[in-house]
Amino acid sequence: MRSVADLVARTWNENLLYSVMLELSYRCDLACVYCYNDRSRTATPLTLAEYERLLADLAAMEVLNLVLTGGEPLRHPDFFAIGAAARRLGFAVRIKTNGHSLSRDRAIRLRDTVDPWVVDLSLHGACAATHDRQTRVPGSFARLLDNVQAMRSLGLRLKLNCTLTRWNEGEIDEMFVLADRLGVPLTVNPTLSPRDDGDRSPLALSPSDEGLRRLFRVARERAARARVGEGTVVALGGDDGLPAAPPTKHCGAGSNTLTVDPFGTVYPCVQWRRPLGSIREHPIREIWNGSKALAAVRRTTMTARDSLAGRVPEHHRGHFCPGLAEMLTGNPLAMYPTAERLLALAAENEPTTDS
Amino acid sequence: MIGPATILGLCRDVRFRSVGGEMVLLSQQRGEILVVNEVGAHVVRAVDGRTPLAAVAERIAAEYQVSAERALADALKFAGQLVEVGIAEVLGEAG
Question: Which residues of A touch B18 (CB under 8 A)?
Fold first, then answer.
């Protein structure tokens, strides 16, 4: 029986483009301390006509998942037109937003125009003092909670995302309690990234070892209690007799995913800022099929898998990111301090390793 | 009750694509992702709000060279699964 895990492995192994992230705009109505966007970049943003052509190309390439992000994607003047086009073309649309502008009226418009699969919202703490300190916008916590409740009442499917920092690491349990009370799943990301221009100042807010240990403990406890995971997976259609193909790559960067910035430059993923080409110069299909830089990325993800095998347990390898490695060391295969620390802490309670 | 005359339609919240020869279907409402093989994909494509399942089964029997009885039984079973997991809904009966 085919499972979704098998399918994902196939998309990695066979370079089947499955998910594309569009960074619509680096403008934002918040000012998060550790934001990784390079907001100083100036270039001509893609037009609505260019987005419509890109979306048509991606639909023809059978891309299913389309992620609209930013900056704050709702700050793009054509956000709703782009979202409507995505819906018309049959994409499963995720919106990654800070939720600040999604008041009830705008949320109704979002639901009726875009019908997103999931709206991902950023949570920065369990209380206004912490959340607003990170966003640097007073009142943003209260507004987020109001908007979450309004969106829930409208039937929008929501998810909260939190990046763990030194400022909010003491509120991990409380953030999960808050998310449970709101009836919205929460994911906590333990890794801060440098800014896309190479500025490493956001890393100064990285969580402490104790904060990371707390996160891993809470994650273990919640996983043990969970009876059903997020996104139940069902496989239909009968047993095709094929064995599950193990993935041959470390991740899907450039193999089943791409990211496009507001100016049309294509990258293997949001974290791996190695330019692959511009959709203003080549259709996305040409970049996907013919980019030498992309071929190199795919080879690198294979090498990364081989180099981690035997050293790092399979279920912890996600703590290593080739894109982040390249940004921090210049080498996408080099171990970097954040990954080293995460791997060591994650392994503390797991003495056995696989290969 | 699903039978040969049943006409199905895909639910409005469903998104699907053909990925590497398989069909991936997402029920946005239920958060379920389904992966169906070539025969299953054939059935899903025939879920058009007009075609009764008996006609879908006839096409499958012709295309995959299986008996009409077997094709109908498989189509009905699969259609029932699609309805159960929120991919398709019964729109009515033919005739």
Answer: 62
**What are the φ/ψ torsions at residue A258 (nearest 5 degrees)?**
-145, 160
Q: Which residue of A has its CA nearest to B75?
A: A237
Record: contact B35-A2, CB cut-off 8 A: yes
> For chain B, what is the mean pLDDT?
92
Residue A214 token pair: 């707390």
* Closest by Cβ to A236, choosing from B19, B26, B81: B81
Residue A208 has what DSSP assignment? Answer: P
Show the tokens assigned to A116. 């997103």
pLDDT of the residue at A245: 58
Q: Do B28 and A62 touch (CB under 8 A)?
A: no
- CB–CB contact B28 A157 (8 Å): yes
Q: Can you tell me the distance from the alpha carbon of A75 to that of A97, in angstroms, rounded to the nearest whole number?
A: 10
What are the tokens at A268? 């293997």
Handedness of CA A241, A246, A247, A248 (dihedral sign): negative
| Closest by Cα among B9, B49, B47, B41 to B24 | B41
For A47, residues 6+ apart whose C-beta sits below 8 A from its C-beta are: none
User: What does pTM read for this prediction?
Assistant: 0.92
Q: Whose CA is closest to A194, among A70, A326, A71, A34?
A: A34
